[in-house]
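cache lookup: miss for this entity combination. No prior model stored, computing from scratch. Input as submitted by user K.M.:
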Amino acid sequence: MASNLAVAVLNGIVWGMIMALIALGLNLIFGLLHIINMAHGALYMLGAVFSWYVIELTGNYWLALIVAPLGVGLVGLALERGILRTIEDQPVVTIICTFGIMLVLQQLVLTYFGGTACRIALPIPWRIPLFDLQYPVMRIVIAAISAAVMGTLWLFLNRTRYGLWMRAVVQDREMAVALGIPVHKVYMWTFVLGSVLAAFSGVLAAPIVCVDFMMGREILIMAFIIVIVGGMGNLWGSVVTAVMISLIHGVGSIFVVPSTATVFSLGFMILVLLVRPQGLFGE
Amino acid sequence: MLLDKWKGAAFPLAFGFLMAVLAAVPFFVDLFYQTFLTEILVWSLFAISFDLIFGYVGLLSFGQALFFGLGGYAVAIPVLKLGLGTGSGLLLSVAVPAAFAAFVGFFSVRLTGIHFVIITIIFALIGSTVGETWTSLTGGADGLVFMAPPLDLGVAKLDLMDIRTTYYLVLAIVALSYLFLRRMVRSPLGKVFVAIRENEERARLIGYDVRRYKLLAFVIAGGLSGLAGGLYSLSLKYASATFLHWSVSGHAVVYTIVGGAGTLVGPMLGAGLIMSLEHYLVKLLQATDLVVGAVLISTLLLAPMGIVGFLLGRRK
């Protein structure tokens, strides 16, 4: 029992760190562009699929960890420049449009990658003993990498000029324009950054889950839940919520059926939406 | 003067003509295309039910799939487990989803914009999770297969295992639903819906209880989505938990946007066009969603009011 609980807690934290990255990307895009990005799950899936290709070609997971997010970043750049830019001030239209993008990306992957799920071998095969069970080291490394990415993001937002601009646009768009901040460029790079974050979590999740063209569909809703409970526009609220929800879900699944845990977390979210639409950590 | 008279006669003429053509079609095409047409009609009904809530009231609901799926089960479960007839099944396929819509809507219409979209998705997700888990009742993702008993109309018994009969039944119900919605959106009630879409604040200030109107529209849309689901399962003789998934609502969204939201005719046209496109393209390339997504995105960029809106020249 103790070992089961320990594994559930560890898994919850690892998965929470992965979810935190997706939610951060989604929240960043929402906070700045006010776009609910329905294609975010597809970008996560694309990250995992790209990494699978890189690993097929070179056999190197760490190379995939660099290349796949960059590739997805390019996709994000094309999407923002080509499509979303013209409609970015109409929230409802962008929801529908990103839904369309989701369909296209999923179908493209289905066509070229195929409909069967593929497993990626663990790049670090060692295991550490945990009570009477074995726990894969790779999962802990994944959580660490995710934490490192988040740290880098924090430095970027707080210590660089672009980060300053991004925070400025979130605070007061009009004023940012008046001060000469190139708002449209900030939009563009924010969307790219959000896509890269989604792809990162896709690559990190790839060795844990199966790589599959539908893998982003359920994740998208989980990411929405995290962003709303944590507060839209509140980045660090998302991180806390992601780990919290994964822990509750993981530990709860020991005691009840997973689908019951899902229904309860969904019900909890409806409650948050109705009672505190600004999120648990919002002002 | 003369023009006004023609305007009044134009709709009954066009409607009558179209109905005559649709009624004659089964005599010229084979069973495959009769089934295909039935499906188009069912999805058109689903699309116009979504158009009421999105195109007229301005609420983007991704939760219509919940009512669609429920409608399917409202036919399948009574027929299969309770031994009820098709007629009561169809009535239930309106009543049960409408009751659920009243519950979901009671909470959802308190929210606006993005929050509304997300809460409807969550409700649908709860529905599909429950539906996929509660396999003893729903059959889960495998679904339920049933035999539809003949529909007793008093004057005649309709054999619903016959494809052509089913087609005529679906055609009649969809046509009636369309007339019902058309009448409604042209009534004072419909004007209130549009007023809420255009400026919610102002509608409230004039004295309309906005939430109650939104709830009313949501319940009607839910009931009609359920009817579409009921007809769908009746024509397939099959209901499944996969129809409850929120992404099924995407069909209605796509048809409505491409055809033109807030026009009723548009979403039906959109359903017909996109489904035919899918049907013919599936032979060329397997990737139908690719085309659907591409058509959706290009419509949003090039003709945001959809095909009908574009033809009417109402550009933003």
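stored under new cache key. Residues 30-244 of chain B form one domain.
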